[in-house]
Amino acid sequence: MSSDLSKEVILEQGATVNITVKENTESGNVVPNALVRIQSEDGILDYITETTEGGMISTHLLNGSYTFTIEKDGYSKAVVTKDILDNINAITFVISKVYNVTANVTKTSEPVPDATVNV
Predict the structure, then answer these.
(1) Which terminus of the chain, N or C, has less C-beta within 10 A?
(2) How far apart are the C-alpha atoms of 69 and 44, rounded to whole Å?
(3) What radius of gyration do the chain's Cα atoms show?
């Protein structure tokens, strides 16, 4: 009795990709604990992870097109589609910080009703 246990294995090329999330301020601070969803175009890969305190994620991605969704409270949501090739090893996403502004308009110590303030 003989058995053939050999199988052909095909390994797809890919890359270890270091992803950094930064804010769009002058300082360009990294954004820790941002949720990053990575979805492959073919739908096979779909997972959510979180950036480290240093605003980074390191992951292995096969060559292909991916949609990255980045979210964190206090920042605008970003959705970016990017092609990953085996020569891409770093991606930086910049997200917009959201500021809440409250303004009270007064004229000679009296509130002005229905005043419009543009910032």
Answers:
(1) N
(2) 16
(3) 23
Which residue, chain included where needed, has tokens 């002058």?
A: 26
Q: Are the CB atoms for 58 and 16 separated by under 8 Å?
A: yes
Secondary structure string (H, E, C) spanning the chain: CCCCCCCCCCCCCEEEEEEEEEECCCCCCECCCCEEEEEECCCCCEEEEECCCCCEEEEEEECEEEEEEEECCCECCEEEEEEECCCCCEEEEEECECCCCCCCCEECCEECCCCCCCC
Other residues' Cβ atoms within 10 Å of the Cβ of residue 81: 10
Residue pLDDT, tens place only, 14-46: 778 999 999 998 889 999 999 999 999 999 999
Q: Each residue of 57-97: pLDDT tens digit?
A: 999 999 899 999 999 999 999 999 999 887 778 999 999 98
Q: Which two tokens stand for residue 45?
A: 């890969």
pTM for this model (two decimals):
0.74
